[in-house]
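User: Thanks for the earlier help. One more: Cysteine desulfurase. Can you show the sequence and predicted structure together?

Assistant: Of course, both are below.
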Amino acid sequence: MYDVEEIRAQFPILSREINGVPLVYLDNGASAQKPQVVIDAINRGYAQEYSNVHRGLHTLSTISTERYEGTRDVVRKFLNAASAEEIILNTGTTEGINMVAYGWAMPRMEPGDEIVLSIMEHHANIVPWHFLRERQGVVIKWVDVDANGDLDPQAVIDAIGPKTKLVAVTHMSNVLGTVVDVKAICDGARARGVPVLVDGSQAAVHMPVDVQAIGCDFYAITGHKLYGPSGAGAIYVRSERMAEMRPFMGGGDMIDRVTRDTVTYNEPPMRFEAGTPSIVSTIGMGVALDWMMGVGMDDIAAHERHLRNRAIERFKGLNWLNVQGNSAGKGAIFSLTIEGGAHAHDISTVLDKKGIAVRAGTHCAMPLMDHLGVGATCRASFGLYNTEAEVDRLVDALELCHELFG
Ligand code: PLP
């Protein structure tokens, strides 16, 4: 039985007040809060167990290394990868996608080769491909979402042509909450011999992920949205792709031997982890993922579905509120505008006065905002600790915004 109050009690920040009222944290899409177990792990990591990893033979280095490497296996389990050797630990999704762009795509793409993207990608899954466009003449092919903000997997598959070298899509939109049928896309792309990168930054927080069932080649996640620390993340790379990938960054730890004239590299995945990593953050991410699995990914998904339904039900009574791309099957992420032209920044300022944290702006997804024809929205993104009462507080505060600006 999912006990949201018991879960909330594990997040110290949720008991604080903002502007004299209890905090309602609805900015989980940007970054999630941390449970006490993660805070304790970070504290212990620095206070009692800190040392560099992979390098020393002393006790502290052994402990740090074991905990750090332990995270690799937790990520494997979290994503159901076949082997921990398919998991590269890094600083987050942005690094993961850049690594694929530089290490895998760049060496194998020629002018005129194509990458297929959906229009609702986060800039982290757009700008690295623009680098390839600028530097190597790679062509980006865009697939639009429909009026409901849904992405037809067949449209993505149909965009694949003889020159397509990669499909890169999000598993869940950080703006609309749209869940993409990435398995269907992977099935279609594999039949055409084209690898698929999935940006799992948003989806992995809200639903169980199984990279083997999806059949993707790359799956990127980011620790700070997964109730873990910032500065830690991971990317699953299917072993065949890992073998094709060149190191992205050079430095310590990723080498086998260095001489004046030559260098040979460590085995994958270490080959892709140059320099001193985010040791304690990575350990904290492992604790966060373990904790989430303990809560139960199916139960988290069911709780958030319930919150989404409640929000949609309440929003129906507000005929001046626009919910961008609202259709069934989405996650509990809502991009909102108020008729009458109130700016998202003004709305979010009023919500803040009521203790409610949301994000206002274009959400690092400018091509999508252009496609939707909206300048900026207020995004309310729910997490595993949010409650029905918080949905109601959001609605009350939106009503106040309508009175003020509508
Ligand atoms: N992709 C999506 C869908 C996101 O929502 C985000 C973060 O907002 C990212 C990528 C980038 O993640 P990070 O900044 O942690 O690297």
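User: Great, one quick takeaway?

Assistant: DSSP finds 15 helices and 17 strands in the chain.
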